[in-house]
Fold these 2 entries.
Entry 1:
Amino acid sequence: MDEEFHIHHGSELSGTLLRTGGSYPDNTRVLRGAYTPAWRPSIQLEGAQGEFRCLAVFITPSPCSLAAARGVTAGCPARRPACA
């Protein structure tokens, strides 16, 4: 189903992530690098399911994102996956 979007501690995320085997193309994500998620404790509440964890993944912005931040959009189609 959505295994490619499951973010397990210590697993490596890379390449193209497809939601439901690619049946939702707007949710497809192309990763330009490899990322190893590391979940960290955030809040502990009482009860069996009281642990909340957080995840922050630091990435390098794509050239299109950097250009858009400067107001330059030439050469970066709005829906091109590599520029998402």
Entry 2:
Amino acid sequence: MESTNDDDSDGANPQKANKWTGDNFSRYCNPEYDKLWTQATTEIDPKKRQEILIKMNDMLINNTIVIPLVHRADVQGVNQQLTGVDLTPWDLTVWNIKDWKKSSN
């Protein structure tokens, strides 16, 4: 979930002005969450970033902002000459791009 800026100046809320591309589908607004989001996007220490993201997740779940019942599935295709691709529903498609190789076939 992206920043929850109340006035939507960051374009997070899906709307006609941003061609319905914002990620704040629930239109959740919380200044504390926004502060954590800003910290998470600038934190370079993986452990500290993980702690921030867990706190953000806990806020969403404990305040019943998000009830994780539905997964919007994506369709992904991979060329047969590409090896090392490990598609996962839990992360970005390119999460392990460093392991991708073109086979000689």
